[in-house]
Amino acid sequence: MPPTTTYADWLDAGSRVFRVDMPNLEPLDVLLLDCSFTLEFLASGINDQARVRLVAVAPNGIMLIPPGAHTASELRNSRAPAAISGFLVASQAGNYRVKLQGKTRNGDPGQLAIYDASVLRVLHLKR
Fold first, then answer.
1. Which distant-in-sequence residues (6+ apart) come within 8 Å of 77 by Cβ?
2. At residue 65, what are phi and psi to the nearest 5 degrees?
3. pTM of the model
4. Which residues contact 19 (CB under 8 A, 6 or more apart)?
5. What are phi and psi of 22, to 5 degrees?
6. Does pLDDT of 73 surpass 70?
7. In the chain, what is the straight-line distance between the N-terminal and C-terminal CA atoms, in Å?
8. Alpha carbons 44 and 57: distance in angstroms, whole number
9. Could you report the per-residue pLDDT of 24-69, keeping only the tens digit for each?
10. What backbone phi and psi angles, to 5 degrees, belong to 17?
């Protein structure tokens, strides 16, 4: 992922490995989310953080943030395995896209990378 410039900027992980399309969800269907990856954060400041989350894009284009699917790291100049998980209850019928996003905090010009052996699993439980 390229570096971000402000705290408010979330960027999609570029690889298709970090997104899953889930077709034909019905209201109250449940998605169980699990993602593991290697996180590298090359910070330039001492109080900066890298943040990574899973989001789901609903059929109407609204970005939903599943409970629990978020992590923050203050690792600097090192790589470490990371994992996040969460769940989502569908609010409307249609196709959803689950994807991994990341950002740096406080406009840190450092670099956040997500790569190596990665897994993004989505389990669809019908109501």
1. 42, 43
2. -110, 105
3. 0.82
4. 12, 13, 97, 98, 99, 100, 120
5. -115, 105
6. no
7. 36
8. 32
9. 999 999 999 999 888 887 776 666 777 888 999 999 999 999 988 8
10. -60, -25
The four Cα atoms 94, 89, 64, 18 give a dihedral, to 10 degrees, of: -80
Q: Which helix or strand (DSSP H or E) is residue 50 part of?
A: strand 50-57
User: In this predicted model, what pLDDT tens digit does every residue of 13-25 receive, in sequence order?
Assistant: 777 778 999 999 9
Q: Locate tokens 């408010």: which residue? A: 8
User: Any idea which residue has 């284009």 for tokens?
Assistant: 61
Tokens of 52: 């990574």
Euclidean distance between CA atoms 13 and 115, whole angstroms: 9
The closest alpha carbon to 1, from 58, 59, 53, 62, belongs to 53
- Residues sharing a CB contact under 8 Å with residue 111, sequence separation 6 or more, in sequence order: 1, 2, 3, 40, 41, 42
